[in-house]
Amino acid sequence: MTIDHPNFGNIADDRLIIFDTTLRDGEQSPGFSMNLAEKLRMAEALAELGVDVIEAGFPIASEGDYESVRAIAQSIQGPVICGLARSGRADILRAAEAVAPAERRRIHTFISTSPLHMKYKLRMEPEAVLAAVADSVALARQHTDDVEWSAEDGSRTEPEFLCRCVEAAIRAGATTINIPDTVGYALPQDMARLFTMVRERVPGAEKVIFSAHNHNDLGLAVANTIASVNAGARQVECTINGIGERAGNAALEEIVMAIRTRPDSVPARPQVATENILRTSRLLSTITGFDVQPNKAIVGRNAFAHESGIHQDGVLKNAATYEIMTPESVGWTKSSLVMGKHSGRAAFRDKLRAMGYGDLGENQLNDAFRRFKDLADRKKVVYDEDIMALVDDEVMRDHDRIRFVSLDVHAGSKAKPSAVLELEIDGVTRAATATGDGPVDATFIAIRKLFQHEATLRLYSVGAITEGTDAQARVTVRLEEEGKMVDGQGADTDTIVASARAYVHALNKLLVKRTRTEPAALSA
Ligand code: KIV
Ligand code: ZN
């Protein structure tokens, strides 16, 4: 039996739609916010990964959200571009406007249906919620044929009422029905029962796609998603690296690889280019500054590392002894030596193309090449990861108003640490000298002298991009100003330079946030 869907046509019974919400549910969690250029970059990577739907944001939430959904709708080809909306008219019209430029678009509208949420959050009677379901879906349908409706807190909703709401949404024209476990409370058997019940009881259920959206508060988001698919869901909502509210959402890479690895136990097939998984995961880490933990399934540094002698011996004799999927199937390759310091620009450009950075402009390529040469002078071995970090560092900063120029630091156990820093602010290079409690402190004080601001440093963290004492450091700096939080990243073989870059990056992000409400005032 097939479903005729406005964006996907005749969908085979075993087709699994991958709905990625990294840029919406993922991005809305603290510390994971991205700017427009970063969201576009991420959306391109998701399209290359082959996701079916990109939930690009919540357009009514802010001007920035609206702009990024619209920019993604304008430029990303392939996936359906989706905007989120509550049930109100203003939300739906804003979402409709934001996704309008997309070749294939969707409006996703939701309202809470559980007794707890209706009483305390919405302060609405169930009958009013039911009316809002029908009205919101009908309004969304006036703007696009592809409408998804979600029952927020669906897993804690009275079954009877949930069925009435789902029926109302289908009658009003919803093409996808999502039943989220919003608070990550359900167990796999609960989700299986829920989908089976709704699909059996609701008239018209056979005409729509059912969707699973699970949060990870009990560490069960992926298990609940697989259980939902086994009970008939044919869309899964997920995020790269499992980022999302609180403990996160179901991780895309885990769902896809669980199904690829166990097709005998799951009756649906995703169409994802799995060999792009690692690259997409790393791009997200670079953009947000949050690495996944080493033992994270599929994309963690140790996911395919075999430490014990017995395991190593087994893998050498036959990899299948301890590997249930090949590392290559998700994009792991042996870290390859890129090129030496004598490599030319053409070879560098080829390398970037092979790594998925084929779309760099001439200026970006020149800047990245200059930094590559500089790095190759300082570092014995330049790995793919190093190239990725420096390109992301350089390219993502294309529109920055403040730029790092140079840093000279003196530190040690005797003299008070000092820093001489040069920054380019709005095209003008300025220098400042400062002393501090340590070299990082001195550098940050110098930045404050050059660009005065009231932001408070909330987080400073350092990680190594590759192994060895000459590895590049990746630094994350979190700044807060008037309740707005931004994260900046910087990479360099010199930890203090990486720190300065990260701080400057965070300041640039803060400027973007400021300009949305007030004109930015740069001072020196
Ligand atoms: O978790 C949730 O319920 C959501 C909805 C907006 C779909 O994210
Ligand atoms: Zn959610």
Verbal overview:
The protein has 524 residues and is α/β, with parallel strands linked by helices. Helix content is 40%, strand content 20%. It is built from 17 helices and 17 strands. Helix 9 (221-230) links the parallel strand 9 and strand 10 (235-238). Helix 2 packs antiparallel against helix 11 (277-288) and helix 16 (439-450) runs parallel beside helix 17. The model is unreliable at 516-524 (pLDDT under 50). The chain binds 3-methyl-2-oxobutanoic acid and zinc ion.
Summarize the model shown.
By secondary structure, the chain is α/β, with parallel strands linked by helices.
List keywords for this structure.
alpha/beta; TIM Barrel; Double Stranded RNA Binding Domain; 3 domains; eight-stranded parallel β-barrel; globular; binds 3-methyl-2-oxobutanoic acid; binds zinc ion
